[in-house]
Amino acid sequence: MSGSTTTTATVCVAGCGPAGAVLGLLLARAGIEVVVLEKHADFLRDFRGDTVHPSTLEVLDELGLAGRFLELPHHKVSTVGFVRDGRRLDVADFSALGLKYPYIAFVPQWDLLHLLVSEAARHPNFRLLLQAEAYELLREDGRITGVRFRTPDGEQQVRAHLTVAADGRHSAVRRAAGLRPREFGAPMDVLQFRISRRDTDPDEGYHLRMAGGRSVAVINRGSYWNIAYMIRKGGYDDLRRAGIQPLRDDVAGLVGFLSDRVGELTGFDDTRFLEVRLDRLRRWHAPGLLAIGDAAHAMSPIAGVGINLAVQDAVAAANLLTERLRRTQDTGEPIPGRVTAAVRRRRWVPTVATQGLQRTAQRFGIDRALRGQAAPDYSAIAKLPFVRTLMSRLLGVGVRPEHVRVPAAPPRGQGR
Ligand SMILES: Cc1cc2nc3c(=O)[nH]c(=O)nc-3n(C[C@H](O)[C@H](O)[C@H](O)COP(=O)(O)OP(=O)(O)OC[C@H]3O[C@@H](n4cnc5c(N)ncnc54)[C@H](O)[C@@H]3O)c2cc1C
């Protein structure tokens, strides 16, 4: 990290999740000076989602990264469904869509982020500052002109023509800009923990299992299963009061092959509580600022599409802003609000449509299931060929998929 207290850049991106990492890479490779701030010291956290959908695989392909990505340890899943009361129901099958990558790749998100930032670091105009937590905005004449951030060495600032809030669903930058999202609510939160994996366990990347008002998503991480156990919103204190055994029993009941080792869960200290939110900003920009990814529209975990939407926002932002940013970089002219507003216009329909699907699933599936009410049986509808094709396209490709249109400036050294 630089010893000086002020860094300058054309763009400062707060947050190095999928949205911030992809935007940082795209801008740096196009020759824009970009600083990305990440509050953590690394990317190694289990709560990051792992699903890389066909549309994101295409983006990686367009960036020349698909080969390196697919060398990472991963599981491919070409159908999406769930097991309810012991019966499996597939709602999407990507193999019939004629896609270049007809599957979801399950890859630990830290591997994806490492790949993106190591590629970005090949460009001299990319800087990633770790342990750099944005907390306040710089302002001049009514415009946002950068960010103040905390580091272990003290407070510093980045001065930038454009500040991008990519700091996730609790975005401090969006809050500092006075942008308030409309909340849609979610009926659940998630408790996440690990249970060891054995060679005799199923070789699947992902299971979602529901029965008797309980549901878990089980993700294969090689040596262990990463478990996301859904709890009713507001039900966490009751769960803790009941003690660890009922939680172990639920996991054993839902995922039979884990029943011999649920005892690895010794107490709630082995678990992590994750708040689920579903919200959306009406305006994603302010003078000198743009919000993308969960900072603009927090996604529920349903269908595991939040990462992909965040990546698509970043691609759209780079496509729409790069030319204008080059001019600003050369002349110092501010970026007009209509240019940043175009990102929201472009991404509004995909965001509203995807959140609409998640809200429907929350209301008619998860909410009822968590209340112990029988959810309606949609299996006959889900099996209709056109419904399956529609769901496959919505989940795999999304509404209005984005493609990388910004050409690359030559990277540092050569050897691409
Ligand atoms: C329990 C749960 C499970 C989920 N599972 C999946 C899944 O399997 N697949 C899927 O596609 N989506 C999933 N989602 C949704 C997905 O996590 C988000 O939609 C996606 O991560 C959004 O990406 P992002 O880059 O916008 O934000 P984030 O991934 O939240 O990244 C924000 C980054 O900013 C950093 N940051 C935060 N504040 C600051 C600050 N002040 N200064 C600097 N840095 C900061 C954070 O450390 C983080 O690295 C899940 C959501 C939840 C709640």
Secondary structure: elements and pairs:
Blueprint: E1 6-14, H1 18-29, E2 34-37, E3 51-52, H2 54-62, H3 66-71, E4 75-77, E5 79-84, E6 87-93, E7 104-106, H4 109-120, E8 126-129, E9 133-140, E10 143-151, E11 154-165, H5 172-176, E12 182-183, E13 188-196, E14 206-211, E15 214-220, E16 224-232, H6 236-242, H7 244-254, E17 272-274, E18 279-280, E19 285-286, E20 289-291, H8 306-331, H9 337-370, H10 379-382, H11 385-396
Parallel strand pairs: 1-2, 1-11, 2-8, 5-14, 11-20
Antiparallel strand pairs: 3-7, 4-7, 5-6, 9-10, 10-11, 12-18, 13-16, 13-17, 14-15, 15-16, 19-20
This protein binds flavin-adenine dinucleotide (FAD).
Describe the structure.
- This protein is an alpha+beta fold and 416 residues long.
- It has two domains: 6-184 and 278-396, FAD/NAD(P)-binding domain (3-Layer(bba) Sandwich), CATH 3.50.50; 188-274, D-Amino Acid Oxidase, Chain A, domain 2 (2-Layer Sandwich).
- 33% of the residues lie in helices and 26% in strands.
- The chain contains eleven helices and 20 strands.
- The protein has helices at residues 18-29, 54-62, 66-71, 109-120, 172-176, 236-242, 244-254, 306-331, 337-370, 379-382, 385-396, and strands at 6-14, 34-37, 51-52, 75-77, 79-84, 87-93, 104-106, 126-129, 133-140, 143-151, 154-165, 182-183, 188-196, 206-211, 214-220, 224-232, 272-274, 279-280, 285-286, 289-291.
- The strands form four sheets. Strands 1, 2, 8, 9, 10, 11, 19 and 20 form an eight-stranded mixed sheet that branches. A seven-stranded mixed sheet has the order 6-5-14-15-16-13-17.
- Strand 15 (214-220) and strand 16 (224-232) form a beta hairpin.
- The longest helix is centred in the C-terminal third of the chain and has 34 residues, at 337-370.
- The chain is globular.
- The model has no long low-confidence stretch (mean pLDDT 91).
- Flavin-adenine dinucleotide (FAD) binds at residues 14-20, 37-40, 49-51, 133-134, 166-169, 172, 190, 274, 276, 293-295, 299, 301, 304-308, 310.
- Flavin-adenine dinucleotide is lined by residues 14-20, 37-40, 49-51, 133-134, 166-169, 172, 190, 274, 276, 293-295, 299, 301, 304-308, 310.
